[in-house]
Amino acid sequence: MIDQQASLPSEPPEKTRIVILISGSGSNMTAIADEISRGSMDAEVSAVICNVPEAAGIQKARDRDLETQVIDHRNFTSREEFDLNLMRAIDDYSPDLIVLAGFMRILTPDFVRRYEGRMLNIHPSLLPAYQGLHTHQRALDAGDRKHGVTVHFVTEILDDGPNVIQAVVPVLDGDDATSLQKRVQLQEHIIYPIAVKWFVEGRLTMVGNTALMDGQPLPVTGVQLES
Q1: Are 77 and 163 found together in one domain?
Q2: Sign (positive/negative) of CA torsion 86, 149, 208, 199?
Q3: pLDDT, tens only, 48-87
Q4: Within 10 Å of residue 154's Cβ, how many Cβ atoms?
Q5: For 173-222, how does the pLDDT look when each residue is reduced to its tens digit (9 = 90+)?
Q6: Residue at which a domain ends, from 81, 115, 149
Q7: Any catalytic annotation for residue 147?
């Protein structure tokens, strides 16, 4: 007798659902979305959510047929109220991963705890150096010969979560903050899709305050690439 149940085709595995948060040009969002569209990872961008109605990244997302939402933080009386509404919008998509791609908001502890271990951020310095703003000028002012960019897991302390991957960029004679930023940004568009792909493949996880690759702790720098 034929086991008809066993002969039924199996359901294809669901794609990893990603929600991307932006505030500006959306260049890292497009780098990730374009890599997904090329089929390099089994994922989908469920939504792009932006807190700045005039941000150029909104149209870039729409040009790629990505669902977009705008939640203007200026419409809320407190950071907590904004974050609560943002969480509700995110949870409508049941995402596996939250990607902060130039999202210029300091998140409340409740927000971070809700998505801990499945939220990535990119920061334009070799963390833990130069947390916060104006990283390129600060590297120049310090006379650094190397600068770069870091993808890290998000924790409650700003720019302090465990590092996943860094790209190191040399500081050249004659560099100013603008020229240095341009070279760093080129590396952002390379390493952020790599980190997302590792997560999608199940290779990248966070346990406690440690980033793991294939179950092994990453170094403090994360994987470090020289450009």
Answers
A1: no
A2: positive
A3: 999 999 999 999 999 999 999 999 999 999 999 999 999 9
A4: 23
A5: 999 999 999 999 999 999 999 999 999 999 999 999 999 999 999 999 99
A6: 115
A7: no
